[in-house]
Target: Zinc metallopeptidase
Amino acid sequence: MPPPQLTNPIKTIQGVRVPNSKSTWDITVAYSADSPQGTISSITPHQPPSQDSTQFPLLLPSLTHPHIHIDKAFIHGAPEHAHLLPVTGSFQEALSFTTQAKGQFALPALTKRGEWLLAESVASGVTAMRAFVEVDRAVQTTCLDAGGILKEKWKDACEIQIVCFAQDPIFSGMHGEENRGLMEKGILTRHTDVIGTTPYVESDIHSAKMNIDWAIDRAMHLGLHVDFHLDYNLDHNKEPLVWYVLKRLREKGWTSQLGKRVMLGHCSRLTLFSSVEWERLAREIREGDLPVSFVGLPTSDLYMASPPPGEGAGARAPHEKQRGTLQVPEMIRKYALDAVMGVNNVGNAFTPWGSPDPLSLACLGVGVYQTGTQADAELLYECVSTRARAAIGLPIRTSSGSDLTLKQGDRPDFLLFYNLDDTGCELSRVRGSVAEVVWDPPARLSRAVACNGRLMVKPMAEMRSQSCPGSNLGYI
Model:
C-alpha cells in the first residue's frame, strides 16, 4: 500500500474562514532553505469581501494522535486472528488474546494493518502521532521493525514518533529479564524516540517501581521521552504509582530544561482522588518544573476500566457498571495540568469499538465530560490537536500555544473543512464554527489535509472543488 499522493507545495489559499471571525482570508505560504516545509508568510483579507462567509471552508490546525498502538490496530479485521474476538470483554482476556495474536505477528501483516491505521488517520487530518510498538520475547523486535518501515515510508504525510514499548513485565515473571534485554536492544535503534513501559503489569509493587526507575534512567541517559501506562485501575486499595513517578523525576533532576517530556497514560486510579490529592498533584508538578502530561483514553477506559468485583458487603450489585477516565477539561481548567486525549487502540480486544478519527474522540468528550459550550468544544479540539502535539514534545504549529487560529510564522499543517454534500440530496449543511465541527464531525471527504504545506490528494476532490467556494489553492 503506497502512502497518500501529495500535491506540490501550496503557495496560496484564497478565501477561508478562521475561528471567531466573520471575515474571509487569504493565506500565503513561503518556502526557503531554512524552512523547506514552509511557513505562513501572510494572512490578508480576501478580496472582494464575501457577503456570506459560511460558504467558504473553515481552516483549523491539523490533528494529532498523542497515544496510539500501531502494531495492534485492527487485529479483529485480520482473518488469522478471527478466533480471538472478545468473549468476556475483560482486561485479562484482552491481555491473553493479544498475547496469542502476537505469537502470529509477521512483518508483512504488521505493516499492512499499520497502513490501514495511517491511511484512515491521515485522511481524518492527523499529521503527527506517537505510535507504540511492542518489544518482548513473543515478537522480539518485529513490531519495532514494522514501525521503522512505516515511519520512513509515511514521513511526508505524517510525523511518527516511535515508542519502544514493554507491554509485558520486565522485572518479574518467567520472562522479565529476557523482555528487559530485548528492550535494551530496541531503545538503541535509530527509529526509537520514546521509551514506554507498563509498570502495573509487574507482579508486585517493588517490581513496578523498578520498572519505573529503569525507564527514567534509560530515557535520561539516551535523551529520549518516556511514556508510562500507569495506574490503570479503580481500586482504592492500590497505591497510586503517580506519586512514585513524580518523586523519582525530582530526585533524578528531570525538569523542563532537559527538553524531553514525560507522558502518563490511562491513570484511571486518579479519578478516585480527592480535591486535596489533585491539588497536591498539580503543586508537585508545578514546583518541580516537571514536563509531565496526562493523556486520557476514553474509548479504552470506558470499555475496560472497572473496579474490582468485591466480596461480601463490598460486592457490587449486578447493575453497577462504574467506569473511570481522566476528566481532561477539569484537569486543565481547575488544576492547570497538561492533559490531552488519545485514541489508544482500534479494532482489538482492548478497544473493539471506535475509529482512528481524533474528532470522533473530541465529540465523545462532549458527553463524557458534560462539556457542551462552544468554549468547551474549542478546548476539546485543542486536546486532539495543538495541545496533543505539544504534549508529545513536537514543536507547536500555532505561534500562540494552543490557540486554534493559525498565524503568520506558523508552519502549514492544517485542515480545511468544506461544506460538502455527502447525502446525495444536493444539500450541504454548514458547520460554521469549531463547536459544530466537534459536536458533529464532518465526513473525511469534507476535509482537506495539509502536512508541511502539501495537500493530501483524495477521491472526489474535484467534486468538492467544483461545489465549494474558497477552493482556489495555488501551487509552486
